[in-house]
C-alpha cells in the first residue's frame, strides 16, 4: 500500500507546487516567484508531500522566536511572515518553527497526509534544535456556530468543547496532534482573511518538544 512521503522541495518541483497552490482561493495564492524566494530563504522548511510519485501537498516554515507571554507581538499572519516573503531569520535566537503555509490538493484532504504534515514539521523542529512548532490556524466553524447559537467572543469559542472535543473542527484536528491554544491571548482578530472564521486566527503551539 502506498504511503504519503515527504522531502525537501527543489526548484524543479515548482510546476507541481503551483498546481497544488491552485486549490487556494485565487486572492490567497502565492506566486511562482514568491515560492522560489521562500525556497531560497529557508530551503529546509520547504517540503513537498507525495503519493504514488505525485505531489499532493506543500508545507513552508521558518525558524522564529516564540514567547507565550508576548504572543500579542506576533500580530497577523502578514506581520509574522513579512507579507509572505519571510522575515530575516535569526537562527541564534529562534526557538520555534513557524508553519507559514501548507496546502493539500482537495482530492487528498481527509487522507493520512494531514498526519504526515504535522509529524514532519515536528521532526524538523527537533532536528533544528527548536523547542516549539507554532502555526496560525483558522477557526472555520466560528461563523456557523454564531449563526446557529448566537454571537460569542472568538476568545471563548476557541475553547468550547462538546463531549471532550473542541467545537471547532480545525482546532480539534490540531489538538489531535498535540497542538494547543495556550490561552485566550493566542486568539487574534484580523489574523487572516477567512469569512467562516470571521477573520480570526488561533495561534496553536506544540511543545516544548
Q: Outline of this structure?
A:
With 209 residues, the chain is α+β, with helices and mostly antiparallel strands.
Strand content: 15-25%
Distance between the termini: 31 Å
Helical run tally: 7
CATH architecture: 3-Layer(aba) Sandwich
CATH class: Alpha Beta
Summed over residues and divided by their number, the pLDDT gives a mean of: 93
Which spans of ≥5 residues are poorly predicted at pLDDT below 50? Answer: none
Q: CATH H level: which superfamily?
A: Gcn5-related N-acetyltransferase (GNAT)
CATH level-3 fold name: Aminopeptidase
Quick one: how many beta strands? Answer: 9
- Gyration radius, in Å: 17 Å
List descriptors:
about 210 residues, alpha+beta, Aminopeptidase, seven-stranded mixed sheet, two-stranded antiparallel ribbon, about 25% helix, N-acetyltransferase domain-containing protein, Acyl_CoA_acyltransferase
